[in-house]
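sorry for the late reply, my laptop died twice this morning and i had to redo everyting from scratch. anyway the thing you sent over, i finally got around to it. pasting the sequence first so we're on the same page, its 367 residues, then the predicted structure underneath. double check i copied it right bc i was rushing
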Amino acid sequence: MTSALLIEDLVKQFATGKPAVDGVSFDVPAGEIVVLLGPSGCGKTTTLRCVAGLEHPTGGRISIGDRVVSEPQRGLLVSPRERDIGMVFQSYAVWPHMTVRQNVAYPLKHRRKNGGGDINTKVNETLELVGLGDYAERPVTSLSGGQMQRVALARSLVYRPQLLLLDEPLSNLDAKLRIRLRDELRRILKQTGMTGLYVTHDQSEAVVLGDRIGVMKDGKLLQMAPPAEIYNRPADSFVANFTGASNILLGKVLARNGDKATIDLGAAGRIEAWTPQPLAVGDKARVALRAENVRLGEKGPANAFSGRVVERRYQGMQTVYDVELGGQRLEALELGTAARHNDGEIPLTLPPDQCWAYRDEGATSVE
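ok and here's the structure:
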């Protein structure tokens, strides 16, 4: 099946500095939602703007459906309006002098093809889809921010583009509304069968919305995988840390067996960890794990340690513990409205499958 979007070795170089996008390749099959996730300046928005035709790539090739829309080496560049895309921006970008209906109908009236059928029928169906059926005749300026973003979404969906691009569309909303619209947005896109490329720096948005997540850093795509794989099998230490594995234990590789490594943590003892990298005996390593995966008060069959709780922070729905482990520090998170552990010595288990070993940055091997 033809991908709705295919990006091959995309490069975008501005006048100075490193490339903003550096050899990025991925595809988005029809009906799938791919989220590009990363910190500011990682290249995710530039990638999306290259797909939209708002930035001109320096190299590589972009295809939408079975049509190449950008290939600098051949001097090929299709204009944004000819790419059959919809786009939802961070700002609502609605027309303030129009009603809700007029905003949503505008693309149908000004496109060469609207797919046939009555414009009002299409507008009504789309407004119902985004929950604005009762607001059609209202001035768009009378709506809340969340409602205006729904108008922007409806306007991009009404003509059923081949590809929908979304550039941090929820970032201007308050936290509670952002969570509600995040959940509804996935439902709407799946209900319409829309193919989507979504850009965000918010991990929770990426997990809820994406069929796959692509984590970017310094213009490069580090990993593209389903959310569960990104969270449970991060390809490198940056992906692990960016998605919440804030605990880092430093050690040295003692043994390697397939994708498992035994790491010497010094005074804390030895730890078994999964590793995607070709670590060798003697390499310095960083073991990453999430605070919520630390099992306080448990002595498991593997990776069982004795630590010491040095501080705890009660946060209502959860308690965060600072634990000393052989001269290194861990953060452990316990869900629930009551803290179960006191300061002092405590057994703990670090599940081997939830400990991930990576090469220590700037180090190769230890003599």
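Residues 225 and 290 are 19 Å apart (CA to CA).
thats about all i looked at so far, will dig more tmrw
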